[in-house]
Design goal:
There is one protein chain. By secondary structure, the chain is α+β, with helices and mostly antiparallel strands. It has one domain: 3-Layer(aba) Sandwich (Aminopeptidase), CATH 3.40.630.30. Helices cover 35% and strands 29% of the residues. Strands 1, 2, 3, 4, 5, 6, 7 and 8 form an eight-stranded mixed β-sheet that branches. The longest helix is centred in the N-terminal third of the chain and has 19 residues.
Length: 167
């Protein structure tokens, strides 16, 4: 498996992977959650995301099988809630990659980039109720930071987590 920075030629594959992964996760773990057309369009807006954030892909056999994005500290659209922090979003892997280390490799790459870019921390948000994902982040050292929560109810409530990046 190769982890590399995404390019324009990856945009469609990344967008479709994000929509598939989010829909699949919610269908299995939170069937009451439906992803609307606006959310799907936002997930598919990869070119716009690459204009302000770093986007990586996991590639295997010439196929995009995973992705993650990081907004640099202070970048437009960042939802980081710690001064000087990077904002990690849109971690997704193909179902066939689960348990194969793809998420870990993507997270390692994203966190290293954030540290190397001078970020003081990595912030992220997890939809309330997505306990498995929250546990994965906590196992990596992320801690729950309720003051960074995003209340977008009635649509969604996002719980905040942060990882400190010592210099």
């Amino acid at each position: 498996m190769l982890i590399r920075e995404a390019t324009q030629r990856d945009d469609h594959a990344i967008g479709e992977l994000l929509v598939r992964a989010f829909e699949e996760t919610y269908r299995v773990k939170m069937p009451e959650v439906k992803i609307g057309e606006n959310r799907k369009a936002a997930l598919r807006a990869v070119a716009e995301k690459r204009a302000v954030a770093k986007v990586w892909v996991a590639e295997e056999g010439g196929r995009v099988v995973g992705t993650v994005s990081v907004w640099p500290a202070g970048a437009e659209g960042s939802e980081a809630f710690v001064p000087g922090a990077a904002d990690l979003r849109h971690l997704a892997v193909e179902a066939s990659q689960k348990g194969r280390g793809t998420s870990k490799a993507l997270m390692d790459t994203a966190e290293k980039w954030a540290r190397d870019s001078g970020a003081t921390a990595v912030c992220l948000h997890v939809r309330r109720g997505v306990h498995g994902l929250a546990r994965m982040y906590m196992a990596r050292g992320y801690v729950r930071v309720p003051s960074g929560d995003l209340d977008k109810l009635p649509d969604v409530f996002l719980e905040a987590y942060a990882l400190s990046l010592p210099p």
